[in-house]
Amino acid sequence: MPHIFSQNMPNNLKTQLPDLAKVLDDVTVKTAPWYHLGLLKSKAGLLFFSFAKGPKFAKELYFDWIAPTLNASLLVETWPNGPDRLPSQCGQFNVYNVQTVNMNIANCTFKTTNDHSKWATITKDNLIAKWICIGDINRAKPQRHRGGGSVCFQSVNVKQAYQDIIGDIQPC
């Protein structure tokens, strides 16, 4: 459940956005499904996939859901300092943990233990897909029981920018 300290939603918006109104009224989802894949479209026509999960989803966000949905193996950078960090996982679609980030333009290299961001992109051997995802879930066992998600979109330039900063990855 989100921790909302203060809110104000005009009545005319409550009828237009009933799901948001339920969140603000502390109404929780009581039955499955415990996840939602939404398709969002920007004013410019760019499509975004919104992967949202509740605590009862109980699966690993990237390996169990995002990679199979995007039909692609992923390079994932999340904060590794919490308990029960998940290793890179190989299967039909592999999910590799990024271990170092190289910001060559700033002459800076750092380990992911010093970074709290959460993002994923497709593996460098995939020359067709252009996926990049920005999220709020780490790759760790306790995160299976935490609400959150990721938003993914396709962009050659953004994908390349993220791939260019990937240093070491953890093999399976």
List keywords for this structure.
172 residues, alpha+beta, eight-stranded mixed β-sheet, 4 helices, 10 strands, 19% helix
What does this molecule look like?
One of its GO terms (biological process) is apoptotic DNA fragmentation. GO terms for molecular function: deoxyribonuclease II activity. The protein is of the alpha+beta class and 172 residues long. The protein has one domain (34-170). The chain has 4 helices and 10 strands; from the N terminus they run H-H-E-E-H-E-E-E-E-E-E-E-H-E. The protein has helices at 11-16, 18-24, 61-70, 156-164; strands at 35-41, 47-53, 74-77, 95-98, 100-103, 108-111, 119-122, 131-135, 148-154, 169-170. Strands 1-2-9-8-7-3-4-10 form an 8-stranded mixed sheet. The chain has a two-stranded antiparallel sheet with strand order 5-6. The longest helix is centred in the middle third of the chain and has 10 residues, at 61-70. It is globular, with a radius of gyration of 18 Å.
Oligomeric form of this entry? single chain
Kindly estimate the percentage of residues that lie in beta strands according to DSSP.
Answer: 25-35%
Supply the number of helical segments: 4
Low-confidence runs: none
Family: Belongs to the DNase II family.
GO biological process, one term: apoptotic DNA fragmentation
GO molecular function: deoxyribonuclease II activity
Keywords: Hydrolase
